[in-house]
Amino acid sequence: MKDRLTPCIHYVCAHETCKKNIVDVTLKKCKNCTKYRPRKVGKRQEPFVLKRQKDRDRHDKW
Questions:
Q1: Which of 8, 17, 44, 54 is most deeply buried (CB count within 10 A of its CB)?
Q2: Which of 27, 23, 26, 24 is nearest to 6 (CA)?
Q3: In the chain, what is the straight-line distance between the N-terminal and C-terminal CA atoms, in Å?
Q4: Cα separation, 31 vs 33, whole angstroms
């Protein structure tokens, strides 16, 4: 079983009905749901190598 730490995009609040009409939802139920889709946690940082490559490509145009 996968370790799903973030709640689903359909999750509203603990012990309430979620947007998928599942009653009395807890985070444990949400993580084991078949329709689970994680929320976007945040922006991933761009790797240093890709940043440098973009800079090189930008300067090579001239």
A1: 8
A2: 27
A3: 52
A4: 6
